[in-house]
What does this fold into?
Amino acid sequence: MSVSHRTASARPGPPKDRVPAPAPPSPPGWRRWVVPLGVAIAFAAVLFFNPFAKKTSARNFSYTGFINEVTTDKVSTATITSTGSVSGKLRGGAVYTSQIPTALKDDALSALLVKHKVQVRGTNPGKSSVLNVLLSLLPFLFIIGVFVWLGRRGSKQLGGLGGIMGIGKSKAKVYDEERPSTHFADIAGYEGSKAEVMEVVDFLQHPKRYARAGAVGPKGVLMVGPPGTGKTLLARAVAGEAGVPFLALSGSSFVEMFVGVGASRVRDLFAEARKRAPSIIFIDEIDAIGGRRGPGGFGSNDEREQTLNQLLSDMDGFEPGASVVVMAATNRAEILDAALLRPGRFDRTVEIPLPNREERTAILAIHGKDKTLASDVDLDVVSRGTPGFSGADLANLMNEAAINAVRAGRHILSATDFDAARDRLLIGRRDASNALLPQEKHAVAVHEAGHALVAALSPHADPVAKVTILPRGAALGVTEQLPDSERHLYSESHLTDSLAVRLGGRAAEIVVLTEPSTGASNDLLSATDLATRMVREWGFSTAVGPISYGPEGPTRDNPFAGRPYAEETQRSIDQEVARLLREAEVTATELIRENLDRLHQVIDLLLERETIDGADLAAVIGVPGQQNDHERPRTPRAAAMTATQAEHGEAVN
It folds into this structure.
């Protein structure tokens, strides 16, 4: 079974001499609702339960009734407005209201009121009391207060970006006074990548020197590499070395449901960078907005294209000598728009590959600084057993080893802890409850012994590092091969021997048990995939010829692509793949039949110990381990393993 892994450069821990002060406890969430809830209650109380309103009920008279009340000396006071409204008190203390018809001009009314000793007052409705004005304005004040509160609350949550009105502001985190403390010395390996970006640091520190020579510094630097290789860490190191403001954000920060918001944030970001020049803008995962543009789009796609267009425009709009460099990181450079990668925008492309063996050793040393390692721990040996690991994978490996030591009640990490951690990451967790039946255990031993024997007897195969019949993860048994050193090229003979090794377990089952089992399902899958690539992509077939047909079916760049060749060509490819697999099975079967006694010795040893290493295998077989002088290619494919798995729709844990 081949297990894939990813790679990143080491991330240094916080300085030991600086202990950050504990953050003050955040206030309880209910506090932010106290003010608006209190205002709402007060507004409702004034609106529905006005304490200033009088509770007495007034008698409403018609104009004729009002005159009768006056003539009978029952009216004590009368307040008349310019609109003809009359209100006042009766002599018994009751309150009354009435209305003088505006069309009726009764000049005798005033004389009548004076004659019957009614105290008359006049009011101007344009001069209302202060209380009435406040009551009328209270709903508007309440609405304004709610919007102000929402704006301040949104501003705090968005980092001071202006709340609702600041939706188009940049979300970049600015490192200005407190610039990143990371430097190139904190990053292990990647010397070539460091030298590439050192020119960016030199340009930011000495822009006039480049101007005197007529040279223009890079406007953009694109860092490309697998996930976890330390692209973000390298960008922080550039900012730390240059000592300039560093504006960092993710590509997804520009994506919003509102059309035009992303473009507005790009404009604000570049305006802020120009104010702080010389400075660095770092956009992580730029493929979120920099993907290849299509013929058109709607909704979010249209918003993404507008954001990309604004980014292209702002990168072209830098004034000469602005001393602003845009750095970006992605692990999907193949989907980026061509306009983004042309000279004048992203001038430099820096490859951040997976670390080699020496670099992995240095990365492990950095991650192990704060840990106590036993004397039997050799980091060079650990790095040899982790081909294809990224810096992030190595950090995880070191952490898993520490956890394994804690489980054993120790604080010192031993070599056994690293072996257990690597097996856990590559194969899976050891499940003691997943016990095999005696006949199943014997079948697994036969299968894994077949893999190990064919690998040991094949001249171009990688040496066997470990064979185990203990179930781990989805595998019932594992044969692990590790190269002596990493190679960059695979020869046809090496790939042919690799096919034989993958089919060695099935061949051993046929020879010893007289029939195969479902345990070879993963072997057949990986062998078929390898043989298909040998024929279709690498030209290792005389029948098909030196032609590369590329991957079959839909791809990431063209999801609607179909088979890129004719049916006759497909038939030839299928026939050649079947031929390679049959020849590999014949080779494995012949090796097993010729060394049947050795095979049974390996089976007995596996049943006795359950796990053996390469030295035990070499002692039983009597064949010294192979020495490979080539280096294994630095791909995410880690240690080559062949796993015995059950088929039946899903793997057995």
Notes: The chain has a mean pLDDT of 75. The radius of gyration is 41 Å. The chain has four domains: 61-127, 173-351, 357-426, 438-644.
